[in-house]
Amino acid sequence: MDPIEKTISKPSSMNYLVTHGPGRKTLENITLRPLSMKDLDDVAQIDFSLLGKQRKEYWEDKLERIEELGVPSLAAEIDGKVIGFILSKASDREYGIPENIGCIDTIGVDKEWQGKGISHLLFKEMYSMLKNIGIDTIYVFVDRKQRDLVKFFDKMGFARGDMFNMELKI
Asked: CA 16 to CA 51: how far, in whole Å?
């Protein structure tokens, strides 16, 4: 069994303290489990609500790769409805990047559940999964204009790293 699969093969349904506004926190029964092809419609809908573009084919391809390659991924659900998801990857030594490096690929949370701790919950679980398989550094690429994302990852303990992105406009 793949080390990632060992860490996420069983759904983890627990009561989590979720923020519902200033000074209002309640316990919600949120299940964390591996993201799968059966989540395609929910993931595509969350993505559409965030970006305003319909990308179901994109997500279909991405979820197929998750299942084929065992990409570390999680869904957060309440009452069987996916409210958030996270995908990461471990380095396979591309461009000489060592195998102890991980990367957060995508994180998405339904607008209704944003600001309530769901991203934090997903990230913390993914952090543990990656740590369990020997990852000791996690990277994320964020557009600096997306201040909410920069602020979120800052809260999670990220800082500017040694790598930098390069781009060529065509």
From this structure: 28
Nearest in space to 103 (alpha carbons), one of 128, 130, 124: 130
pLDDT in tens, 8-38: 444 455 656 566 666 656 667 888 999 999 9
| DSSP states along 3-25 | HHHHHHSS-EEEEEEEE-STT-E
In this structure, is residue 70 part of a structural domain? yes
In terms of phi and psi (left: phi > 0; alpha: psi -120 to 50; beta: otherwise), the region of 117 is left
Please name the residue ranges forming H helices in the chain. Answer: 3-8, 40-51, 56-69, 118-132, 147-155
Q: How many domains is the chain partitioned into structurally?
A: 1
- Decide if 106 is inside a domain: yes
Structural domain of 66: 3-155
State the CATH number of the domain containing residue 40.
3.40.630.30
Give the pLDDT band of residue 7 (cuts 50, 70, 90).
Answer: very low
- Cβ neighbours, 10 Å, residue 160: 6
**What sign for the dihedral angle of Cα 97, 86, 118, 77?**
negative
Q: Mind listing the pLDDT tens digit for each residue in 30-61?
A: 889 999 999 999 999 999 999 999 999 999 99
